[in-house]
């Protein structure tokens, strides 16, 4: 069951970035008093999800359902971003691509640390629920620490916003 849950979560994780893009793009439409466009895009995405569910569940089982959900989120995000760009023009400046590249590099490095930490912990612990939980918790901690350090090394300015927000919250 743990292995199957991990498979499904891996396929759902593919859609996390596009899920965030949908949330941001929808808010941009709402800020312009346009609630119709995000609803139409979400409806198209939902219909695509239903079609993909039927198409993928038989050959791939529950993994097909998870993948269909990720694909439909990606289509929803791309549709919203396309429509937003048509309405507002270019959404990114040239400097934004450098920040995205740095964040992608930090994510890849942190994902590697997460993966290797999980392998190292599971190799040293007896199999069981407690060991699996410890491996996951340590892997997530490794990801967070390595990502923060790499963002700091790459001088990603968004890290400053997060640390300032955390400082304000702690000082309350």
What does this 3D model show about the protein?
- This protein has 172 residues and is mostly helical.
- Helix content is 87%, strand content 0%.
- It is built from 7 helices and no strands.
- It has helices at 2-13, 16-31, 36-60, 62-88, 94-124, 129-153, 158-171.
- It is flat and about 55 Å long.
- It starts with a helix and ends with a helix.
- The mean pLDDT is 90.
Terminal residue distance? 42 Å
The count of DSSP E runs of length 2 or more, i.e. the number of strands, is 0
Q: What would the principal axes of the Cα set say about the shape? A: flat
Number of helices: 7
Elements, N to C (H/E): HHHHHHH
Low-confidence stretches: none
Give the DSSP E fraction (strand runs of 2 or more residues): under 5%
> In terms of structural class, how would the helical and strand content be classed?
mainly alpha
Mean pLDDT: 90
Rg estimate, integer Å:
20 Å
Quaternary structure: single chain
For the sheet with most strands, the description reads: none
Helix coverage percent: over 70%
What is the topological layout?
Blueprint: H1 2-13, H2 16-31, H3 36-60, H4 62-88, H5 94-124, H6 129-153, H7 158-171
Helix pairs in contact: 1-4, 2-4, 3-4, 5-6
Short description:
This protein has 172 residues and is mainly alpha-helical. The protein has seven helices and no strands.
Keywords:
single chain; 172 residues; mainly alpha; 87% helix; 0% strand; flat
